[in-house]
């Protein structure tokens, strides 16, 4: 009994218990997903640390790096969270904005058929020419291998001027052109997008294109440039970049 009482009144135990209770209170008070309660209660000190770095710390600083770190950790622990929340939002209020959010979440989960349907159904009436909806649908069509349909959507999008000629739209056009067997036309689009689009996706896809079309020396040079840029990154930014780097490297094996 003495050992039990000693353990209970141990200051470290009491401190840890206090932190767990504080985290549970924060979870309930701020409306966090209930799975955090299980993490904190089941894993005690480790659960408290994870909750602090994933939820509390980013909310304290609200900087882009902190938000990125929190989003990456949340995605790792609960990869379907964004989709669930977007689906609930559509069920509560099926606005165009909520449908777009659900479509983007579906695409991130690889549910491209669902994403294409959501974008297409949202692009009605006054929203028929909305660039974001059209681009989202075109990208979903590309992922589905429906390249001719994607090109038709992208052709109409390009007629809207600058809003329809963003690096993201050009990259989607490059992929669609390559998909229909027009590599010469696709190359210019890949190169243009890779020089202007933030992040690593465009450069990685251009590198993959070069490798697949037999231009291995250029592809290797691009991959080396990706590695140089990645060397300056850390944390969640490096992890995201690594996914695109792996896509390009796979074509060189």
Protein model, in words:
This protein has 253 residues and is mostly helical. Among the domains are: 73 residues, no CATH class; 56 residues, no CATH class. It has 14 helices and no strands. α3 packs antiparallel against α4, α6 runs parallel beside α8 and α12 packs antiparallel against α13. The termini are far apart.
> Biggest β-sheet: count, sense, barrel?
none
Helix and strand sequence: HHHHHHHHHHHHHH
Q: How much β-strand is present in the residues?
A: under 5%
Q: What is the straight-line distance between the termini? A: 65 Å
Question: What would the average pLDDT be, to the nearest integer?
Answer: 84
Q: Given the structure, what is the number of helices?
A: 14
According to DSSP, the number of beta strands is 0
Low-confidence stretches: 1-9
Fraction in helix:
over 70%
The gross shape turns out to be flat
SSE-based structural type: mainly alpha
Radius of gyration, in angstroms, nearest whole number: 23 Å
């Amino acid at each position: 009994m003495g050992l039990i009482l000693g353990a209970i009144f141990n200051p470290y135990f009491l401190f840890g218990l206090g932190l767990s209770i504080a985290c549970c209170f924060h979870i309930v008070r701020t409306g966090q997903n209930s799975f955090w309660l299980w993490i904190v209660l089941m894993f005690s000190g480790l659960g408290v640390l994870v909750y602090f770095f994933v939820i509390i710390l980013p909310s304290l600083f609200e900087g882009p790096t902190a938000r990125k770190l929190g989003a990456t950790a949340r995605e790792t622990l609960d990869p379907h969270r964004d989709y669930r929340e977007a689906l609930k939002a559509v069920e509560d209020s099926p606005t165009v904005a909520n449908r777009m959010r659900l479509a983007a979440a579906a695409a991130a989960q690889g549910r491209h058929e669902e994403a294409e349907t959501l974008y297409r159904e949202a692009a009605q009436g006054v929203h028929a020419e909305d660039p974001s909806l059209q681009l989202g649908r075109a990208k979903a069509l590309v992922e589905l291998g429906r390249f001719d349909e994607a090109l038709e959507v992208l052709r109409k999008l390009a007629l809207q001027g600058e809003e329809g000629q963003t690096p993201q739209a050009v990259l989607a056009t490059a992929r669609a052109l390559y998909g229909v067997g027009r590599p010469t036309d696709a190359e210019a689009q890949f190169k243009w997008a890779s020089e202007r689009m933030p992040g690593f996706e465009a450069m990685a896809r251009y590198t993959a294109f070069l490798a697949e079309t037999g231009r291995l020396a250029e592809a290797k040079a691009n991959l080396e440039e990706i590695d140089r840029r990645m060397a300056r990154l850390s944390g969640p930014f490096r992890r995201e970049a690594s996914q695109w780097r792996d896509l390009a490297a796979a074509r060189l094996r």
